[in-house]
Structures are given as C-alpha cells and as structure tokens.
Amino acid sequence: MKRLVAFDLDGTLAESKQAIDAEMAGLLEQLSHLAIIAVISGGDWPQFRQQLVCNLPEGLAVERLFLLPTCGTKLYRCAEDWQPVYADLLSEDARTRILAAFEGALAQAGIADQQTWGKRIEDRGSQITFSALGQKAPLEAKMAWDPDFSKRERLQLALAAALPGHSVRIGGSTSIDITQAGVDKAYGMRKLAQIALVDFAEMIFIGDALFPGGNDFPVRAAGIDSIAVRDTAETKRVIETLIYSLPPRQALPAGGVPEFAGQCPPARAQMGGMSD
Predict the structure, then answer these.
(1) Which of 6, 48, 84, 163 is deepest in the core (most CB within 10 A)?
(2) Statement to judge: residues 74 and 105 lie in one domain
(3) CA 30 to CA 27: how far, in whole Å?
(4) What is the pLDDT of residue 172?
C-alpha cells in the first residue's frame, strides 16, 4: 500500500519557475487527505514558496506535506509558518572548487555566453545550480535552448570530470545541479523516510527527469516505485488515478505524521540570510 506520494516540482507539478495552476492545487488538496505528500526539487526554498506554498488551497492537509528543496539537502515543514527542519550545507572549500570549475567546463562543452535573465550560477547553500539563460529566463526561451538535452549532457560530463567527489545532475530545462558526492534526490528520500516514518516500499515518486543522468533518476535507482511524466498535464492524470485508487483516510503511523514543533537546528540561522 502506498502511503506517501512524492513529486518533482519543475516540469512535473509546474512549468519551469511558474506557479502551480488552480487545477493542480485542487488535485493536491484532494490527494493530501489520502496520503502524505512530499515535493523534492533542485530549486531552493524561495522557488518553493513562490511556485507552490503561496498557491496552496486552504483545505490542503498541510500537516501531511513535506517540502525538500535543493534535492533534499533541506527539509521544510509547517508549524504556524514554514520552517527548516535541517540543511546540509556545502563547505566553503567545496563552493570555491565548484565555482572555479565552471569556466573551463563551459568552454569544453561549447556553451557560449548569450542573453541571460538573472543569475546564471546560483549558490543555494547546499547546492550550486547553473541555469544557462539565468534564473528568470522566459519559459519559451528555456524550452528552445536545449530540447534534445545535448548541451546539458556535454556540460554535465565536463563538470563531473572536473569535480570528483561531487554529484552533477541535469535539473530543469536549462539547469545543472551540483551537490556533495552521494547527495541527490535518493539521499533526500532516505532522510524523508526516516523523518516521515515511511518505508520506500510505501512510497511512489512522480517526475519528469527519471532518465539516466536526470536529477530524478537516483530515486528510481534507489528502488522507489516511480512514474515518469512528460509534463504537468500528464502529472494531473496520474494524480487523478491515485485519488480514485487510494483508500480513503489511509492509516498513518502511530500518533499520525510526526509532529514538527518548529525548533530548528543551528543550520536555520545559516539559512536566514538567503534571499530570493
């Protein structure tokens, strides 16, 4: 029996950097009364807040919702307000080495400078993300930049060669995510399993990057049942199927979903300076 449904964000629940629409919000609300919901993405907390949290309907069972930014290197839950539960941050040395690797890797991959919208390289604390056209690029430009994945695959290979000891994964339509070695979405799902008290066998994951090299692929490789979707429309049909197939009011662990008292570890103070 599946008790927890996990989703990728960009390309799965929402278009790249866009808010979830009203239909998706309504489906998530219905699903929240049948299962625990988790959302895990390469995006950082401000992106989660803008795309997801600010668009959730009032009827959603928020106590059943777990949000895992930057591939699960952070976890947020709601206790009156959304608060970080943990954050596994990169060391200063790792940040320096990752940032230094980009110039040579971009040249090796043949990715030239071009018009950008916002930051191209973003330090998300626990992850460094490269967005070829910038963080605020229009959706049409992003979708046209690398439709066959060839540019991102070349850059992924160049960065991986330059950064032994790190995980380099294809993220959204123009992005590459870099974390510590062994830190990927499977890592985030393992931490989620411990905190939510749910075994992998009781989970199902839905994402658009479940192909080898995609940042959703480690979830499937870890043994979690996964459904690959092409876009948000397909995700909606999958959620509808789950709503019709899951029994009402599934039993939760003794005492329900583990409560979050809002007392965060020291990492919270380190995260406080992050901005949108």
Answers:
(1) 6
(2) no
(3) 5
(4) 78
